[in-house]
Structure formats: C-alpha cells, structure tokens
Records
---
Amino acid sequence: MLKRLLHSMRREHRARLSADTVTALNDAGISAWHRGDLAAAERELRAAIAANPAFAPAYGNLGMVIWEQRRLDEGLATLRQAVALDPDHIGARINLANALAIGNVHQEAIGHYREVLRRRHGHPLATANLLKPLLDVCDWDGADAIVSELVERWRTASGGEILDSMTPFVSLLVDIPQAMRLDVARRYGKRVVEQVADLPRPARATGRGAGRLRIGYASADFHDHATAHLAAGLFERHDRERFEVYAYSFGIDDGSDYRKRLVAAFEHFRDVRTLAHDEIAQRIAADGVDILVDLKGYTGEGRPQVLALRPAPVQVNYLGYPGAMAAPFVDFILADGILIPPGEERWYGEEVVRLPESYQPNDDRQPIAEHVPARGELGLPDSAFVFVSFNEQCKIERAIFDCWMRILGAVPSSVLWLLGGHGETALRRAAAARGVDPSRIVFAPKRPKPAHLARHRAADLFLDTHTCNAHTTASDALWAGLPLLAWPGEGFAGRVSSSLLRAIGLPELVAPDLESYERTAVALAREPERLGALRARLADNRLRGPLFDTERFTRNLEAAYVAVWERHRAAQADSARSQSAMAC
C-alpha cells in the first residue's frame, strides 16, 4: 500500500515538473516573441511542444511566430492544429482568426471570431478584432454594430478592455470621434512601452561632431509597396552633402526592381528583419542617427517597440500611418495645413510640423505603361461614363456607397469601376437593394503598377471615399491625369485627397458636404466641357505644380528636419541651463 502511494506521488511530481517545464518554455517563447526575436521564440515553443505534444497554447503561439516569419501555410497549419487540440482555447482560436484576417481569408476569420464570442460572450479582443474583416467584406450591419458598441463604451468609460484591444489603424477606418481615436492611440502606445519595459536601452554612439545630419528611415515597406512608390524619388534626391541617410528595413526582400532601387537610393541600407526590437534599436543608436523617421506607425508589420526604446534623440511619425501615434516615444508628426488645420493639434500627442505645400512625397519618375487598354479589354462599356474608386473595399462606407448609387441613378449611361476584393458579393447585393443593376458595378483585378496607372485613362472621374480617403491611390489617379472628387472626413486620414487636390491646383474638386459631392459628380458627368477643362488643367499642372515636383518636395522636407533638430538642440540647451541654475 505504501509503495503504491509513493509511486503515485512520484508520478504526480513528475507530471507537475513536466507541466511546469512546458509552461516555462511557452512563457519564454512568448517573451522572445514580444521582444521581436522570432528565431528564439520558435526554438522555445518547439521545445514546449516536444515536452508536451498536446499543449495547445504552444501551438497557438508557434503558429503566429511562424506566420510572422512569412512561412504562411506552415503558420496556418500550426494554428489550426492548436484549435483542433483544444477547441475551447480562446487565445489559440483568436491567433488563428488574426492570421486568417491578415491573410485575407476573411470569412473563415469572421467565423472563428464569432465562435469565440459564442463561447465567451463579449470577449474584448474578439469583438475588437472582428471589426476589420467585417469592413473588408463590406458587412456594414455587423461593423456598425461593433462601432456603436465601442463608441458607447468609450463615452460611458465602461469599455476599457475592448478599447485596449482596438488597434489604432482600424480606428482610422470608421466614423468615430477624434477624441476616441486619440484615446485608442494613447492606450496602444502605453502597451508598447510596457512590452519593452524590461529590454535594455541602446547606447548612443559617442563623439558625434557637427557633421551631416543623420536621418534614419524605419519601415517594413522597402520593396514593391505603396510607400516605396511614393518615396523612392525622395530617398534618391536627399542632399548628400548635408544629410547622411540610413534605411532600417524590417520587411521582406521581394527581389523587385523597387527593392533594388531603394537599396541603391540610401547611403546605408540595413536589413534588420531578423533582429529583435532591442537589437534594431542598438543598431540605430550605434549609427548615431539624429532623427529617426518611422514610416509604419501603428500598421501591420510596424515595429513601434523599436521607437519605444528611444534609439534616436528625435523621433518622427510620417507617411505610413495617417494619424496620431500619441506615444511618449514619438516627438513630431509631419503633416500640412489641410491634414491638420490650425486648432486641431489637440487630437495629436505629437508636436505637429506642417510642410508648406503637401505632406506627401511623389516620384516624378514613376513610369506609366504606354499601352492604354481599350475599355472592352477592361470589362467597361465603350460608351458609358466611368466613375472609378480604386480604394480598398474596407474604406467603402454605407453612406458613401448610397451616394454612389444615387449618382448612378442620376447618370443612366454610367458605371462604377471598383478595385476587386472580398466585398464584391456584398456590394452587388447592396446595389440591387438600392435599385441599381449590379452589372453596372465593374470590378478590376490588381495589376502591376505601370499597367494600373495606365488603365486610369479609361475612366472619367474618380470618386473618393470619406472617413479614410485614397492616399497613394489618389496620387496614382492624379499622376495618370484623372480628376478626383473629394469629400473630406474629420481626421488626418479623411483629408489626404483634399490636400493633394489643393497642391495640384484643383481646389474646386473638394466638396464641403455630401450633397455638394453628389451634385458635383452628377454635374461633371453631364457637362463634358467642364470636366474636360479640369482634365486639361490637371495635365498642365501635373509637371509644373508642387505635388509632383520631387526635388522641391525633398528640399521642403529637409528644411523640416533641420527645424526639428534645431528645436531639439534648443530644448537641450534650455534644460542644461536650468539644471546649472538649480545646481548653483
């Protein structure tokens, strides 16, 4: 009897030791993942699975770590295995849903988020993360219900957990108060600071003299990506006698011509994608970068944790994220007077620096394919008036779509040309519900950039979205010679196309309200001479105005860098004088 008892106690002890080991390995993997050290995270999590092949949490974490290394099929398979092992493990199911949503497998992602909510009613992370895939498939009823819940909880201060789960980028896509967007960004920035609290702070290079100002650009998009399409010419034209320019690339090398061009554009190109957050920060500090310009912000593949470690004395939010980061580790946001009008600074945690003509760089060497396809090749009627909106479908709101359908109703010989996506079925159904033949909506597949630019010339008028505008997409239309009609939203993300139109000399295409937007679209379709005059002015201004003058823009941006650096040095001097006076 005693022997059996001792044997049972030893077995239980071994089981506890084994469980403790698995938990410790899993926790170590999570810690490495949060540090950005994906290779170490994978080792620890695989060791946890080796110790207990039925431990679902380790599979759920490992799947995301593999996914973030862009081994996408393997990552999804591992995440599905986690859910199969323990269907009630909420973290594993949410990780699977997140990966599916990022990978554009929206309906399956939505199904998993809803399964979490069925098992755990009101689960904050599932509720918040469900919003983006609903927008992607144009499920306005579902998205509006979540937005209404989020706004109500924010107003009543009863939704801390849900608001902490909301990503700032998604807050830019939906119509919520500016103060709420700022609150979401601040909460997110606070979490980023907490994530790196235990990581070592980088040691800045000593002996920096009064040489060239060192500018570092940090991004995951130094390849064939919208940010690169805009900024390649800027990077190439920096004044090398006054500025030493670094790139810190934590994204993929896609082998594209854009990647090759960008590597050649920078004086120093650092591929840091395999490094942990603190290792990247140490590299930036060791390089003695004076101004670190974050081109990602709170978007996918962003590394705000690097900025939170303070590798540079001045840190700037610019271009890739059209809103406030509102974090103590970001000093300035670059904008212009349209994006952030005077008096609107209160909605931004950063100090606002306004560029004189437009905040957006553009590449005046961006090629447009010579061949313009006939309308028939593009699925468009030869004789129709073609309204176009090549925005991602997640930007299409119910109100703007209703307006577009009224415009089609008022212009019978017209079609609406949209970029294809996962909301096509919902949009066709919505058109029919509004009395418009769904065949009057034509969906365009994605094309290589030069061919995409060329096909704009088969359209007549670009209709922009509202809460979140076309950004690079708007510049594409204007560069291709296509007039664009804007109705600006309330925040930065909703004012970009208005900024671009003023910079190109077409301010009358900025409508003050929805009624004016609708009325102008119909009028331009009915008055070909008026539209032709706008198109002619756009063609005339395209290479003469500031919007596509890359050299002029670069000098303006460099002047802004010098100004923020001088402001920083003045603040340092004031602080030193104050400390000296206190010491006396």
---
Amino acid sequence: MRPLLLATLLAATAYAQTPDRPITELPYTPGLDVAAMDRSADPCVDFYQYSCGGWMKNNPVPADQASWSVYAKLGQDNQRYLWGILEELAAKKQRNANEQKVGDYFAACMDEAAVENSGATPLRPWLDRIARLKTRRELPALLAELHLATGDGGLFFSFGSNQDFADSTRVIAFADSGGIGMPDRDYYVKDDQRARELRKQYVAYVARIFELLGDPADAAQSQARKVMDLETVLALATLERAERRDPYKLFHKVDRKGLDALMPQFGWSRYLAALGLGSLDTFNVTEPAFFKELQNQLHANSVEDIKSYLRYHLARSAAPYLSTDFVNANFEFFSKTLRGTKELRPRWKRCVAMVDSQLGEALGKEFVARAFPPALKERVLRMTRQVEQAMEQDIKELQWMSAETKERALAKLHTVVNKIGYPDRWRDYSSVQVKRGDFFGNVARAQRFESRRQLAKIGKPVDRGEWLMTPPTVNAYYNPQMNDVNFAAGVLQPPLFDPKMDDAPNYGNTGATIGHELTHGFDDQGRQFDAKGNLKDWWTKDDATAFNARAQCIADQYAQYVVIDDVKINSKLTLGEDVADLGGVILGWMAWKMETAGKTLEPRDGLTPEQRFFVGYAQWACENERPENQRLKAITDSHSPAKWRVNGLVVNLPEFERAFSCKAGQPMVAANRCRVW
C-alpha cells in the first residue's frame, strides 16, 4: 500500500509515440528552448502561451497517448534508453543476478507469441479457486489470497502497511476503501448525460470481460449489471477525493475487536490468518463507514454474485498481461473511452514500463550507472540546500506567523531529509523468480513478492531510506510522514535540469521544483504533520487561522479557472499542489538570487536573466492534452492543468511583473495577490 498522503510534482508521467528503436545515449534538449516560445504573444496577457506556444504548436498528442508534455518527452527518452539497456541485458551471456532478472523479464514480456498462445489460461487456477467458493465463511481466506496475488484494491478493499499517523516510527496495518473499477466515485454518482453514458460503456466492458472468460452473452450482461450495482453502492460509501486530503478523516485506529465490530460477519481472523498475520491487533481503518457498508453488501449479495464480482476484478487487474483480446478490451475502455487515446502503446513501451514497475531498483541501478554521475547529484544537493536556506529566511521574515509557530516550523524544516537520484541501499530481488517464456508468471511472482514485502513491514521500524519511486522516473515527491524530499535521477536530466545551461532557467525549473516539494511540508495537508512526521497540531490558533485565510485566497483564485467547457478546477482537491507551486517558484527565485549574488548576469536569446528564470520555470509545463483526459483529470488529479500552474502563479508575483514590465490591469497582474509562503 502506497502512503495515502504522498505529494508529487505530477500525477503521472505519460509516454508518447516515438521511433521504434532503442537508444544508447539520452538526447539533449536545452533547459530553455527558444523555439518552444511564441514571441508573438504578450507575456503580460498569457505567459503560458508566450513560453509554450511554439511547443504546443509543434507537439500534437501522439496517437498512443492521452496527453503529451515536456515531462512526457523526457519520460519517453528515458524509456527508450531503458529499452536499449534491457535489450543488451536480455542478450548478454555473462550476467549478474539483477541483470538476469530484468533481462529475462523483458524478454518474456516481448515474447508476444507465447503470451498470445496462453490466452486466459494463466487465470485458470484462480478462477477455479473462486468457483470452489461455497459459503461466505470461505470468502476471507480467498480474498486474502487474491489480494496477495493482485495487489489490487479493486477487490472490495485494500490491505497493507503504512506509518502510524500518530507515531511515524511505527508501521501498522492499514485497511483502505476500494472495490470499484472506474477511476473515481464521481463516475458512479454524477447524473449528467456524459456520466450516464460512461456507466453504460463500463457495463459493456465488464460484460466483455465475462465473455472473454467464456460466459454466454446473456449471462455476461446479467453479471455485469450486478457488478455495477455493487460497485455503485461501494462508491457512494466512499469519501470524495478532496475529503481524503484531510489526514484526520483517514485516521481511525482500532484493535482487533474494533475491526471485528465494523464487519462482524466478515471473519477478519480468517483473512489475517491467510495473510500470515493472525496475531495483529493494531489497525488503521481509513474509512469506517465504507467497511460498514461493505459488510451490508457482503450479506445482501448472494455467494454467486460475489463470485461474479471476484471473477471480473481478477480478470480486470490481469487484463494488460494477457492475450490480445484482454489487452484490447482494457485499452478500449480505460484508455480510449476514458482518456481519448487513439492507439495502444507498442509492446516495447509496455514491457519497459513493466520492468520498471516490478523490478524498478534493479533496472534503476543500471540507469543510474550510465546516466547520473556523482557530480550531478552534488550539484542538485547544493541547489536543494540553497532552497532550504531560502525557506528558512522566508519563515523568519513572515509577518503573519508568531515566534512560537516559527520555531516549530524551522525545527521541521531543519529535519527534512533530502534524497537525490537513487536510494543508498538497493532493493533485494533475490527471492523473485524470473523465467523466460513465462511473462504472466513473472508478473504474478513479482506482485506476490511486493505484497509480501509490504506486509512484512508491519510491526517493524520504519525504513527511512526507502524510496517510493524508481530512479528512472520523471517525477519527484514529498512524504509528510517521512518528512523527506525525493528527486529521482530521471527528473534530473535535460531539459528539466540542464548542466550546460545558465543558472536562471535551472533555478526556475529544478529550483522551483525543489521548492515545490519542500513547500508540501507546509501546505494545507503537510502542515498538519510535525518535524517527526506525526499527525500533530503544532500551530497556535491564530497562526492556523492566518494560514487558512491565505490558503483560501489561493483556493478562491483557482476555483475560477476553467479546465474545459464548463468544468472548473476543483480547488479543494488541488489546493496543496497550488500552494506548493506558488511557494516553490518563490523559493526558487530566492535561491537563484543567492547563487548569483555579486555576479554580472547578461541577457541571452533576447531575454533578461529575470525573464529567463520565469520562462525556464514555465517550459517544464508545456503540454497538449485530449479533452477526454482533461475531464478525467478534473475529477481525479490533485494538480491544476498546466496552463494554470504557470499563469495562476505569475499573477501573484511582483517579481514577474517587474521582469516583463507588466502594467496594473493586465491579465498577468492580479489586483489582489495571494501568498502563503
């Protein structure tokens, strides 16, 4: 189970259509690309268009993607580079254990003929196990086995490990809501025409899965409607996504008796015994009301209906790793219908992504050795320390915060751990068996390894050196319970961090990103955790009120921005990221001024150093996106659309107004500026 409160720079990284060939050297794109700009646009009217207009014009969304961005381009380059590494290791004769595993895993995934010949056969042992379910009493043990096998919260609920919100040194068991197949509860509860049509298409997809499992069409339709009915009730019992940003709403610690009281007829003892955790007596139940409703549904639905639900969710979770019929059905609904993607990604992309997902640190070790030299790590660490120094200065100078709260804020800042590039200790995959010619088996064994690895953490000290992101990933995150900032080596490549470029765009881009992640420790969610990562109120009442008022200014600002058509940003969902975006660019600016103090800076490419800082910031966000994906992300993504992650910030910055000589009343100059940090 991933930490529930992880704050990332991006929701996800996409990969776009590229020439189908691996590469052995990462291509170079400058950290500030003049060709990506649209100089005909007025930066004081639409800074995003000014910075990214050329890029958007020349980079349409490829057929196999729902969106395409500067981040996605770098992700694609990294993926093609990993492809080259994997082909080399798949063919290499003399290999160490990790090289064998990633090479053979990739080779097995690329063996499409073997995958095609197997059809749905890999699911047969599990389908037979479900078929043998006779009574509800047998369900807990079966569900435990399925959770271990799939790692999928779609099977009624998810169960795993996480840090205790009240004591971050402890790892305890977490039971979290789940049980639905569509991306969010809103897809089940909204009553507009589009939502109703999507529900019909989802039911058709569920029926298609049953048909692929061999059920007659009439039976498949009937079972699909029952699955939809059950998922709808579970969705209604689930907290809204924005509500889940409140950690107090997700923290309900109970003992075994308390767990049994939520679902007295379920049989938690049998479930836990099947997981090998029969002695556990401390749990966090994130959404008690959900589990009470789940108990009702397990009683109200027949055993046969429960079996249908399990069969569908087993096949849904496995569909991307099965034969073409399953893969295409999964693509048609989850990618084409929901996101507007036109074509399935080529197999090599899917296989590289799978190796990275399941054996990520073994593959990441190879990536780091080739693409992330120690000097680059030291340079980024230096920038990180400067950003932290800027935040210290900022906190000390705040007019709205008392000395008492400042002292605690500084204590938290000084305990932040900076993780740059890759873990100090690589994950041990020695117990994962990988075989050529057995792709699904490799997936299943790797998933079981990960499920067991997560459950084994319960009751043990927290591993503060662990990473939740693989080294090649183009992303970064802040973890409030660890109180650490994490930058994967993959995001520290040009154009996002460009060692050949002048400081201004680097501090505008990577400096602001470091500031973004650091600010997450003090956004509306992160600020609720103390220096040790415990959920604890360390604010005076007046300071909390002052913070909330400043955060509300940002929420009110972003609530006015349109995503698409009449859909506006859900600023309750995006508030943490919007606060972090603004704080990040301010801290990046301060750090850049520290770095360049006393230096003579010259204009380049017709831009002053100050203008280069802001264009360097904006160009990380250059993006094109399909309308279907915009609608989906408006519901599910805690980040605002790229345009507003640029224009929504600069309107609040007097430094930007001066850099571009903007005038009061122009669109990029807010009449009432917002600022938290």
---
Amino acid sequence: MSDRLGVITDGAFNATLTARLDPGVSSEGLRIGDFVIVEGSDHLFFSTIADIQLRSTDASILSQPPEGASSFIARALAGTATYVAVQVKPMLMIDKPTGQFVDTTLKPQPVRTIPMHFAILRQAGQLDFRDVFGEDHDHFFAMGYPLTMDIPVCLDLRRLLERSNGVFGQSGTGKSFLVRLLLCGVIDRGVGVNLIFDMHDEYAFGKQSEEGVWVKGLKELFGSRVLVYSLDERAARRAGHRADVVLKIGLNQIEAEDVLLLAEELNLRGTAEATIGLLEDRFGAGWFASLLEMTPDAINAFCEESGAHAASLASLQRQLKLIGRRPYITPHAEFAYIDDMVAALDRRKHVVLHFGANSTVLDHMLVANIVTRRVRALYQQKVEKYEETRAATDRPQPLMITLEEAHKFLSPAVARQTIFGTIARELRKYYVTLMVVDQRPSGIDAEVLSQLGTRITGKMTEERDIDAVLTGVANRAVVRGALESLDTRQQILIMGHAVPMPVVLRTRRYDEAFYKTLNTRKVEDVPDSDAETREATLRARVQQDIDDLFGE
C-alpha cells in the first residue's frame, strides 16, 4: 500500500502501541499528533502519533557511530541496524468493512481492545476522516483541517444543538469569527434556529477584521432568513445597517430577579430584595413604574404602611432611575415584540438582537435576561403542547442562544438567579440551549461548565482558564497538552458531544471562498425601501403566527 508506514510490534491497552516504521519511511515525514490508522483483523483503529523514537538493533553502532558517515551508509543501515519506532494512541475503533462494498452505517466506537502483532500502520486518508467525522453536507459542517493535512474535519450540528456549548479563547484568538462560522453552519444547514445577543455589533452586519478586510454579517449573507431587532432606534435606520424591528422594553416587563442580577452594577444595598418584594406585594407587575413615580411624601407613606425602610426605598429609587432613563425603556409595553421573536423563530427565522449604542454592562445583562426568560417561557408552552398532540407540526425548532461575555451571566454568584443558568442545567428539555462565548471561562460557574456538551477553544495561557475549559474532560493530561500547544491564531481544539474525539484543527477562513459554499436562498424578502412599511408588514406576519401558535 502506498500509504503504509509500518507494523505494530508492541503495546498495551492502558498505554500506547509501538509501531516499527518501514525502511523507506522517514521520521521527518511524520509529526506528533498526525492521524494514522492501525488495521487490525476485525477493526480499524483511528489513532494519533504520540511519540517518535530512533532505535537500533546493535548497541555498538550507537556507542561508536561510523566516522564521517555518509547518506549512503545511513541508508544501508536503515531498517536493519537502525530503525524508527512511533508510539501510537488509539482514539476510536470502527468495525472493519467486509466484502467489496463500503458499509456507510459503520460508526466509530470507544476503544475497548487492541490489535494483534504486525497489524499494519498507515496514514489516515480522506475516507477514514469521513467515516469518523462525517462528510461536509446535511447536518455535518466542516470546521477546519488537521494541522498537517488538508482534509476537512466536520462537527455534527444536530448533536451540537442537543446540549449547551462553549466557545473560549483569550483575546485576539478569533472567537468572533469562529462563532460566525458556527452560526453560518446552523443557518445554512437548517438544523435549528438562532437567537443571537449581538452585544458588540459583531454578527448582524459587516465588520472589519484585524487584517483590515471587511467581512460580511449574517444579514448580508442570508437576507430575510435573518431578522435584526435593535435597541438603538437611530442605528436601526442607518444605511446598510437597517434593522427589521426597533425593540422596546416596558417597566412592567422587568422582574425582581432582573434587577437583583444588576446588584453590583447598580450598587444596590443588601435590603434591595426585601424592599422590591414589598413593592411587588403592593403594586404587582407595576411596581417598577410606581417606584419611579413616588415623591418623598409617597415614599414615607408607603413605608409607614408596609414597614419598609424609607432610606433604603429612596436609595433603591435613585439607583433604578438609571434603568428608567435608558432610551429603549418605556413605562409600559406589551410582550408582543418579544413574542414576535418567538413566532419568527418558529418560522425558521434567525434573530439577532442588536444593542448598538446601548452597550453598557447594564444594558447587556438587563435586556438579555428579560428577553431570554420570555423566550424560554413561550418555548415551554410549545413543548407542553407538542407533548400533548405529538404532532410533528407542533415540534419546536431547536433554539440556540448565543451569549457573549458569559461570565457576567453565569458566574457562581448569579448563575442560579439568571435564566441562563437554568437553561444550561436543563440541557435540551425545552429545546433551548446556550452557546456561551467568553475569554474568561474561569469566571463561569463550575456546574454550568460541566454541563457544556461541546467545547471549542482557541489559545489560552491562564492556568485557571485552562482548568475551567477542561472541567469534566476525560484524558485530561493529553487534552491539556493539545490545548497548550495551540498557536495564537486560526488553531482550535474541539472536544465533546458534537465530535467523536478531541481534535486540533486549522479553522477554515471566513472569506469570499467560504461565502460561496453557503446556500444563500432567500424566502420572500420584505422590501427595504421603506422602513416603516417593512416593519408594519413584518409585525402583521408575526402577529398571525402568534395567533396560530398561542391562540388569539
């Protein structure tokens, strides 16, 4: 065989296999981490090279090397007195196909045995990668290439959406472009829908890369398949950045946990929770607006009636006015805007929530929590309906919520208070999962990290962050070595539920060549010429969907 490397001569199940390379195979043609196949009698073992060793059958040659040895002498000794051994680590095994036809139903399995002596070692080829990682079509999506090969390696997008996931990497490692690749894959292959919190204007519209190249946003690539809801009314009308809907949040939609999540940001006192509870008892859902409208006399009267502390209530009012002054906040709003999002998601539309100039931590945490809590509640209703009818038409679309700076929402102090912590722990019970994006995974609650099904990470150097990424990972020492060896740019480690084994890749580029691979079909575009007409048309469509889904 032209790709044969050698034969297995030694090994142990709990260690590695030793292979002796054929005389014509040079050690310089192999790299640590290269993928190879060990052909056993009944199984093919998909393996990686863990070590390369120079050995000799005659110790005297090593103790007294030939003086001025020429390449001719080296070639003469190769394979007889000197040889190369490689240590091979089996990662997966596949039942060996029988007969002349390839059985495409064979699936990789965990390694539970080892091959016999003299099993053939050969290079892994494109068909081997296809058998292990799948082929780039349908729900398999190519993420990149092995470091020393040009063979595409895919992840399973359906399995990606079955659990919450994490994208990690220190600043400058290209997390945003990596997330764009994943989002494009989900949209292009139609395996689910996305709700993307675009906190730094990264995903909706075009963006200039660090190399100075302008790259396309999701709206430019997929047209009407992506809807942009913006909190920034001015930015929503900009040429080339026009949003589909301007989103408003009502004070009546803000709940106590939304405010308490911002305790550090707003510098709230320890009595805030109890004070808000008294306000809710008195004013119900209108507690926030009622608090902001209170005069000093009204504050004193309420405290005398409820037993609240006047100074604490006045302090809470001063701090919460910071929220009331945000430009997207209105005294009262119906849930129709957020319900519109759910209806759009159910129609296989992908939603980007664009923050624009509203880019403070307060904006991010407040709006993301409110919107996601409502989306999750409506998805729970949809799941309950599906469980009752068991009709395929009632089955919710799997929803992936993309959340940047996730440690702010999922830190140990707040993970149990936010809806995001609930979603991460419940996995896919309600067809809603998270894709958390962060450069500080050590700031995320350990229980949440342990629930992440697939982790995609770039270069990391901080010890605490590396330990956090590897929470609950098998073969921790081996995977840690692979993570620490990554280059700063365009190299990633993928491990977990969506790939059969951990793998280090060169990521595919997010450029014109990539755009051409996407299926950019559009569905019934709404005209862009008149923003008000477009928004009115959109709202009429989604209102009909809401009536169909949840009743009039």
